[in-house]
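Design a sequence for this backbone.
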């Protein structure tokens, strides 16, 4: 038994679904990652992959970037967690405030989920209202207010305090909000929902609608922050929220996240107010830890260099153009989505502009393609999105596109599907069903 097979046996035995969280490799194409450098990762048997998972987004410079490695090595030798004020996190807070249009002050958190959870708490504290609005198909992490419509185990109280509105549908959103505007503390939105761009005027409309009703607008920039532009989606789209949540990139691959925004709102989490009614608890053991902060500072220094965002957009455009061309050539109707260094392609004849149209895409084709890509050396979380980094070269993209082309052909021939489902428990997808897209 090879090393990977042995580890996968253990993973299936001890980790439900051989997964850490919600992400699981497709059956028959599981990989145990041993390391990564730049745009590549390799598995425990030394097989190399071009990586588009990128740690689920933090690794925008690629893996083991020398500046990040150096910063973390230097910091860890000086101590990795103090709970107390430290220079790196103070400087990171300053960088966030300077970069992000809505940010006047910062509270750190450990993960993106904590950041959105705290933002909603702050919004409730600031407005004295209880309900929040999120969008169908939007993801804000694992807590009960984000998962109200998607997970078992959510208490009724949390579930009933979350209203779900249709993304990219301003009139539909206004109808949801106007029914009980006086009870709504916040509208939380991914400005780019997964890989679906906001329709022209949608974010501006949300800004106007929330302002009109005294509701706080929260941008979840955990993905988009420092990625679409240095100032995130709010700079890219030119709409300024009241609060914004950051994670992923600002921790440079280590756990660190933040809520930033209006000072009057962030001041509610000033611990010197403890014991008063104007205090909202925002705290955590690792919030502001110096290890994540030095890693984040190293990443932001690279992103500040001239040309970084032109490159991130150019490489995304190259990938998207190539994907569109491959699907067209093979006669599969497809929707290419994403902005800048975020991309995906779904097989669907209709434009994808929200969760419902996304759900109608041919996910069996995606599943088959995913398996074929991993086998050829392209590491993705294909049902979700492809993350790109400054480490990805034009050659990486060209090789990836060639593997996409081969993979799509294999899926259309039905070969990939049969092989993919033959290994473990095997959930069969018929090749003819896949061809339908
Ligand atoms: C938009 C968005 N918000 C929040 C989160 C949660 O972040 P974390 O996984 O760090 O808790 C994620 C994670 O992917 C995300 O994509």
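Sequence:
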């Amino acid at each position: 038994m090879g090393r990977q097979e042995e580890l996968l046996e253990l993973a299936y035995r001890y980790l439900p679904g051989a997964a850490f969280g919600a992400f699981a490799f497709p059956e028959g194409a599981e990989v145990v990652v041993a390391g990564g450098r730049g745009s590549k990762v390799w598995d425990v048997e030394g097989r190399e992959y071009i990586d588009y998972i990128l740690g689920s987004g933090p690794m925008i410079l690629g893996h083991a970037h020398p500046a990040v490695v150096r910063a973390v090595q230097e910091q860890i030798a000086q101590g990795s967690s103090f709970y107390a004020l430290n220079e790196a996190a103070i400087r990171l807070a300053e960088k966030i405030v300077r970069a992000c249009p809505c940010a006047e002050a910062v509270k750190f958190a450990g993960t993106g989920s904590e950041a959105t959870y705290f933002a909603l708490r702050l919004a409730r504290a600031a407005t004295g209202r209880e309900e929040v609005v999120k969008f169908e198909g939007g993801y804000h992490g694992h807590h009960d207010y984000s998962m109200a419509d998607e997970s078992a185990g959510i208490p009724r109280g949390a579930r009933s305090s979350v209203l779900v509105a249709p993304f990219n549908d301003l009139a539909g959103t206004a109808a949801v909000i106007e029914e009980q505007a006086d009870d709504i503390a916040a509208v939380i939105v991914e400005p780019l929902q997964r890989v679906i761009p906001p329709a022209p005027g949608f974010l501006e409309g949300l800004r106007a609608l929330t302002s009109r009703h005294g509701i706080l607008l929260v941008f979840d920039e955990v993905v988009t922050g420092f990625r679409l532009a240095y100032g995130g989606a709010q700079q890219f789209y030119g709409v300024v929220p009241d609060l914004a949540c950051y994670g992923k990139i600002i921790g440079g691959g280590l756990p660190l996240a933040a809520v930033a925004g209006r000072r009057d709102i962030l001041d509610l989490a000033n611990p010197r107010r403890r014991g008063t009614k104007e205090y909202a608890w925002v705290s955590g053991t690792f919030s502001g830890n110096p290890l994540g902060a030095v890693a984040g500072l190293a990443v932001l220094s690279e992103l500040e260099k001239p040309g970084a965002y032109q490159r991130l957009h150019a490489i995304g455009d190259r990938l998207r153009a190539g994907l569109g061309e491959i699907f067209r050539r093979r006669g599969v109707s497809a929707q290419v989505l994403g902005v800048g260094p975020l991309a995906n392609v779904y097989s669907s004849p209709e434009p994808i502009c929200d969760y419902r149209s996304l759900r109608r895409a041919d996910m069996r084709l995606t599943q088959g393609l995913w398996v074929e890509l991993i086998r050829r050396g392209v590491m993705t979380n294909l049902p979700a999105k492809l993350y790109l980094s400054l480490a990805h070269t034009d050659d990486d993209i060209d090789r990836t596109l060639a593997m996409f082309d081969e993979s799509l052909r294999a899926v259309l021939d039905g070969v990939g599907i049969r092989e993919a489902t033959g290994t473990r428990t095997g959930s069969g997808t018929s090749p003819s069903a896949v061809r339908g897209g």
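The two ends are 38 Å apart (CA to CA).
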